[in-house]
């Protein structure tokens, strides 16, 4: 199975930016003229827009809910059981969506759960990578706050861009590479601390976790996109089901290794609260939204959503946690936003 041959296209033929260019090329300069676009193209644009906006909203809430779920600065619940429930919920939602499709459209070769070894054997790799990345995102909050976490998550753009070039042979323009450098500068600026002897607000262990998470997230995202787009006609819910099944299996192992005694002595749901439940629901819906974006757009659109979510998280944190929007954070966020814009502009010039 050679995934390097996979082009950065979805099954309908293009990314969100390609759709915009197609509309312009066909002489639809205004919003009113979009009504003349063929229904199929309108449906494509609407679908991509909905999943992208959903991902942006859900991602902006992730860090807030994780921080909110802590009591006295620590997690009273088991993060491995929470992660297992996230995978279980995603699997259940995928099955529910499939059941509806089977009822309305019947069972076909593209939406049946039965599969071959060659198709299913590739899913354990991203499932394992996502497991480690998801567990790290809980522990990184010992070193960063919610807005700082969202800033550091933008390192995913760098890892995604580099891995796109290596794995999928996707060419990036000079403007896009310049955007990566600006992103690093923006992340660093936002972390500057003028009220302490430390230059950066995030200590070294936090940065190491952030870099590892970026590499894991980038590789898992690119690899998953390659898997999903290798068979474009395959129903996304079937592909999600097999990915989440392996995710559940790996999380069971994590529970046995890390929290077996706590689960046996205190119970599976010890320390859970309403916020914990909302966090699990948010993570599950975010995971499904990510797969939808990779199916119908690409990983670059996904990291754009993360960057916008960073700004939303910072604004909400001001009201919930008394977060102060320092000048360094404001300048860093601005630079990150400019880098995202340049990355998008560079994509148009490829």
From TrEMBL:
Its main location: membrane. It is found in: Membrane. It is a multi-pass membrane protein. SUPFAM superfamilies: Multidrug resistance efflux transporter EmrE. The keyword Transmembrane helix applies. The keyword Transmembrane applies. The chain crosses the membrane at residues 50-69, 81-99, 120-141, 147-168, 175-192, 204-228, 240-257, 269-291, 303-321, 327-344. InterPro entries: EmrE-like, Nuc_sug_transpt. Keywords: Membrane, Transmembrane, Transmembrane helix. NCBIfam families: nst (TIGR00803). Belongs to the nucleotide-sugar transporter family. CMP-Sialate:CMP antiporter (TC 2.A.7.12) subfamily. This is CMP-sialic acid transporter 4. It comes from Hibiscus sabdariffa.
